[in-house]
Write a structure and sequence with these properties.
Elements lengths: L1 H23 L7 H14 L3 H19 L21 H11 L4 E7 L5 E5 L1 H4 L11 H10 L9 E2 L5 E2 L1 H6 L3 H11 L1 H10 L27 H7 L7 H13 L2 E3 L7 H5 L5 E4 L3 H16 L13 E10 L4 E12 L2 E11 L5 H17 L26
Antiparallel strand pairs: 1-2, 1-9, 3-4, 5-6, 7-8, 8-9
Helix pairs in contact: 4-14, 6-8, 6-9, 6-13, 8-10
Length: 395
């Protein structure tokens, strides 16, 4: 019996030892592929509310950047509602054909008298104005020359590697250059030169619908540099830009613009001077930059009759509207005298100063091919028929 008990105890000890040994053996690892698959399922199923929300926000921002914040159409019937009974019919037709389907306005005037020959889209032209964008650089340039801050050929260092002079700064519309000029002029002198060239006041007389635009009472939110490179804080009308370019074209006489609306006004028209500016020598220093804009700068889109065209483009967004803007203030020196064309385009992404310059180039081309620049009485027969050959369509 004692022997049996001893045997049973030995067997029990051996079984416990065997069980312990088996438990201590290493277990077979799970297959790596299965483990990876399980992990992928876990990550994919795990809720990621913040990541999803951020992705939605980024997508919405991308769409907004692609489409832009603008709320004004790029295309419209810009001539609708105009009163043009006393306009020069050839000039009117040339401007309408050049503007085509774009949403904008063209003001055309004689540089030696200030007489307005046509206004296309009078509703837009008579509004309270828009940011002038880079067209503000013309009075800023004249102010910097007048205050002897720079001369035309003075190189201004923009950074460690780049310098630029006034001619190229105007031609290429360099924002850094004109921001620097604004800081050196100071707010009061910037406002003074903007005012004497007609900003902040009505450009015309006997035109009740016209609005005076706006000059800010203080430095705008973006700073003085933004004011002198983009015109921030200023509201400019197409009539004001036309009056400014009239003064530049004729050497410094700022005329009241006059737009005859009746036979009596047309017959009794006499030029009226608003301000005589002693700026002719300074204007001569600015003209190479305005010609450079057409030849190799921001207005090089003009590819017709550009030999005698001078001008300045402007491109920016008017936050109040909001609309993208394309400006081009210009004049052409012709055998018949200097003629001024101020173009304003409104709309979305396609709108720009270079596009406005293209419209002005087409306008001047329309006049030239129909003999407008010849002496009176020598126009070609083409000027007597509606429409213009080779007119562009922007739709």
């Amino acid at each position: 019996m004692n022997l049996l008990n001893r045997c049973l105890r030995v067997v029990g000890v051996l079984m416990v030892a065997a069980a312990t040994l088996v438990a201590a053996l290493p277990q077979k690892p799970a297959p790596k592929k299965a483990a990876a698959k399980s992990a992928r399922k876990f990550v994919a199923a795990k809720p990621q509310p913040r990541v999803v929300k951020a992705a939605v926000v980024r997508a919405a921002q991308t769409r907004r950047i692609a489409t832009g914040p603008w709320r004004v159409p790029t295309y419209a019937d810009s001539k609708a509602g105009d009163n043009f009974s006393m306009d020069d019919p050839l000039v009117r037709r040339a401007a309408v054909e050049a503007l085509s389907s774009l949403n904008g306005s063209i003001v055309v005037a004689e540089a030696e008298t200030g007489r307005v020959l046509t206004i296309v889209n009078q509703k837009l032209a008579f509004r309270d104005g828009f940011e002038p964008c880079s067209t503000i650089k013309v009075p800023v340039a004249l102010g910097a020359l007048s205050e002897m801050i720079v001369e035309r050929n003075t190189p201004v260092r923009l950074n460690r590697w780049k310098s630029i002079d006034l001619t190229d700064a105007l031609a290429k519309s360099n924002n850094e250059y004109f921001a620097s000029m604004g800081e050196q002029l100071g707010f009061d002198r910037v406002s003074y030169y903007a005012h004497i060239f007609g900003l902040g006041e009505k450009a015309a007389i006997n035109l009740d619908e016209e609005q005076p635009g706006r000059l800010p009472a203080g430095i705008p939110r973006g700073g003085l540099g933004m004011m002198t490179s983009f015109g921030e804080g200023i509201s400019q009308t197409p009539l004001q830009l036309a009056a400014e370019m009239v003064a530049v074209a004729n050497g410094g006489t700022l005329f009241y613009l006059q737009y005859p609306r009746s036979e009596e006004q047309a017959e009794t028209f006499m030029p009226r001077i608003k301000r005589q500016l002693d700026f002719d020598p300074l204007i001569q220093e600015v003209l190479p930059g305005l010609k450079g804009a057409v030849d190799y700068g921001t207005a090089r889109r003009i590819d017709e009759t550009s030999e005698h065209i001078f001008g300045k483009t402007g491109t920016c967004t008017d936050e109040r509207s909001p609309t993208h803007l394309g400006w081009f203030g210009s004049f052409m020196d012709t055998p018949r005298g200097k003629i001024v064309a101020a173009v304003l385009l409104t709309g979305g992404r396609p709108v720009s100063g270079p596009l406005a310059a293209g419209v002005a180039g087409q306008f001047y081309h329309n006049l030239e091919i129909n003999g407008y620049f010849l002496a009176r009485g020598q126009q070609t027969e083409a000027s007597l028929i509606p429409g213009f050959p080779g007119a562009r369509t922007y739709r």
